[in-house]
Write a structure and sequence with these properties.
This protein is α/β, with parallel strands linked by helices. The protein contains 12 helices and 13 strands. The longest helix has 17 residues.
Length: about 400
């Protein structure tokens, strides 16, 4: 999985997932040649690699033992992690076509990793219990329809989306969309606390925490839910309920395409050619989880924007680990922590290979980006639940 030898980094994850599903023993060699995968030499694995265009090398038992001995050396920042069980994957997404695409759905499809789509009805009816891993992308859990009101309120897709959301909320027994979305957010919270893994991108990150923090408080203006917001609602926000963020200030103006000051999009002053973020380096033997999540063939990842592009570091809770950052702007791009028995990762931005993806733009063609380091971070999170966990010591 190093930069020079692997023709298709993204599909290599699909091969590994496929092998685990077929009960083959698999290992993730953290920090060894870009985070390589060690699989048994089986004819069908070779054939599958050839079909999918994935580069591989055949090792003798002696060569394998030499590699494992090198990794085991205390002087090497490497580790072997067994991959035991292919996680059952759910992608939280509304039914029907949306005017934007989802990076995780794109890369899962490209890597040929199976997943199921779920939405509010399935979540409310406790179907998350069937899955190990849940993805949230470009979602608004606050009931403000993505804060698209100013620019898109007259667009047919916006009108239809609002109507569909209201009908769904009523069908599920809620008077308002904001109340129904809060109930969904709380079910997802319980899924994580009970041992599930949640991965969120773009506006699903901050809107999820905002919804939890505003439980019992009306933060929606009249055009969103039919009545005004509560007076002085900012002082009623409970940061103890959030996963990742603290002390944030909500954006009251409905015409602003922003939920709060968590997001750095409008506070950035980084030219396109300098917009990169750096992955942090962790001890593979001591901090196995962040080492898994940061595996890549480069530590420098080109930036990309979204409704929520990055997170203000000063508003991130102290127990949350920053795994990717842009020091120029003091912003976090990639963060992770444990919640109850489960884990969550928040990844800022919309599409790792589209710098400024806009509503209605065509989806990225991943055949043109088979070695994308930004997309590799997503797939690290896909395989993470398959790993035999070791206790994190720091």
């Amino acid at each position: 999985m190093d930069e020079s030898s692997q023709k298709n980094h993204l599909k290599a994850y699909g091969i590994t997932y496929w092998a685990i599903e077929k009960q083959y023993k698999a290992s993730w060699l953290l920090n060894y040649r870009g985070g390589s995968f060690l699989l048994p030499d089986a004819t069908e694995i070779r054939k599958e690699c050839q079909i999918r265009g994935v580069s591989f090398e055949i090792l003798t038992d002696s060569e394998t033992n030499q590699i494992l001995a090198e990794i085991a050396s205390p002087s090497q920042n490497m580790e072997v992690v067994a991959l035991e069980k292919a996680p059952k994957i759910a992608v939280y997404t509304p039914k029907g076509k949306q005017p934007w695409d989802d990076a995780v759905t794109l890369v899962l499809t490209y890597a040929e990793i199976p997943y199921k789509e779920v939405y509010d009805e399935e979540v409310i009816n406790d179907q998350l219990l069937l899955y190990d891993w849940l993805h949230l992308h470009h979602e608004d859990f606050t009931g403000q329809y993505g804060k698209f009101y100013a620019n898109y309120k007259n667009m047919p897709w916006y009108i239809e989306q609002k109507k569909d959301s209201e009908q769904l909320a009523q069908r599920l027994g809620f008077a308002k969309v904001s109340e129904e979305k809060l109930a969904v957010a709380k079910k997802i919270r319980d899924f994580v606390i009970g041992g599930g893994f949640m991965f969120a991108m773009c506006s699903a990150t901050d809107s999820f925490d905002i919804a939890l923090s505003a439980e019992g408080v009306d933060i929606c203006e009249t055009m969103f839910d039919g009545d005004p917001s509560e007076p002085n609602y900012q002082n009623k926000i409970d940061f103890n309920r959030t996963f990742a963020f603290k002390d944030f200030i909500l954006e009251r103006r409905p015409e602003r395409y922003e939920f709060s000051n968590i997001d750095m999009t409008e506070k950035r002053n980084i030219p396109f050619e300098k917009d990169y973020f750096t992955l942090m380096e962790f001890s593979a033997k001591w901090d196995v989880i962040p080492s898994m999540l940061c595996q890549n063939h480069t530590q420098l990842i080109k930036g990309f924007m979204g409704q929520t592009t990055a997170f203000d570091r000063s508003l991130i809770k102290s127990n949350v680990l920053v795994m990717g950052e842009c020091q120029i702007n003091e912003e976090a791009r990639y963060i992770h922590s444990q919640k109850g028995k489960g884990f969550f990762t928040f990844y800022g931005g919309h599409d790792p290979e589209d710098f400024q993806h806009r509503v209605g733009d065509e989806p990225t063609t991943l055949e043109l980006h088979p070695n994308s380091p930004g997309y590799r971070l997503i797939l690290n999170n896909i395989l993470f639940p398959a790993a035999k966990k070791k206790h994190q010591k720091t």
